[in-house]
Amino acid sequence: MKRLLITVFAALSVLTAPAWARDWQTIQASGKLHAITEGAFYPFNYFEGQTLTGFEVELAEAIAKELGLAIEWRTVPFDAQIAAIQQGRYDFAIASHGYTEQRAKAVDFTNPHYCTGGMIAARKDGPLTVKALAGKTVAVQIGTSYLENARKIPGLKALKTYKSDPEAFAALKAGKVDAWISDRFLVKATLEKNGDPNLAAGEQVFYERVSMILQKNNPELKEKLNEGLAAIMRNGVYQRLSQKYFGEDVSCPE
Ligand code: ARG
């Protein structure tokens, strides 16, 4: 009986024990950072054929290089990433997480790698301002700051959530919703790339600072990621990537 109890306790503690993310020493010894992103947030992280790429993917690669490491990438649905990081399953995520107090209770944020905001897109004759959204239906990706901020817009008829941002955009294109709220750079790039001439970008709804996220209580890893980011901001790599993807400097004003 005693033995059985001990076994049961041991099994339970494995299940409930917090999983610690790898510390800097372990990461360094392995030569690789385990990073996650989504792969469906153009042009920040997306697939070109089979290849994962984008501003954030190239940025993380450049940061890793500064730290003398390679990256082993995995893609995880956006709304599952905070839990995955909290559970210590990966070292960090770079998938356009805007800083929010609520998220900061669950994970740590590095210094921001860009500043941006949520923006409305709609038909040219549709609701292009926050005010005009009253009585309208809006598409957003689940788990995002667009959802949180759209909830605050007075008088919306319906808020429809989609698993990925391209699905939310597709709903707008198909006329299933009146408007879509997403990242302002993404809206611009998406409308340019595969937009319908009847669609337009509208008002910016809110502002946010976007960072990499990592498990709490991993100060050395956070410091290293910040150091790597600072280094590529100093040596011109950040600027080159920002120009390549956006034709402008997307870094946060000091
Ligand atoms: N910036 C928004 C947020 O923080 C959306 C990020 C969505 N990222 C993604 N890879 N789909 O919630």
TrEMBL record:
Gene3D superfamilies hit by this protein: Periplasmic binding protein-like II
Cellular component, GO, one term: cell envelope
UniProt-annotated location(s): Cell envelope
Keywords for the protein's UniProt record, in alphabetical order: Signal
SMART domains: PBPb (SM00062)
UniProt xrefs under InterPro entries: SBP_3_CS, Solute-binding_3/MltF_N
Signal peptide: 1-21
Residue span, Solute-binding protein family 3/N-terminal domain: 32-249
Entry keyword Repeat: no
Top-rank taxon: Bacteria
Entry similarity comment: Belongs to the bacterial solute-binding protein 3 family.
The protein's name in its UniProt record: Amino acid ABC transporter, substrate-binding component
Species for this entry: Hydrogenophilus thermoluteolus (Pseudomonas hydrogenothermophila)
